[in-house]
Amino acid sequence: MMKPTIYTTLTCPFCKMAKAFFQEKGVEYEEKDVTHDEALQEEMIKKSGQFAVPVIDIGGQIIVGFQKEKIEAALTAK
To answer: What range does the domain containing 64 cover?
Structure first.
């Protein structure tokens, strides 16, 4: 299974939901907090084209927001 990268902020409820979902599924992920990090903000915007969180990168597939079905499909894709 691929290790997702999730771009988050401290106060984002959807980020918390996405992280809880990964934890429930036993999925290891890398969290990148963009709250005060301009370089990470630019990296996230370059990947997603947006300044919205969460941005989830699963093997190059970019998902903006907590979209459970898309996340599950990306995690199980080969």
So the answer is: 5-76
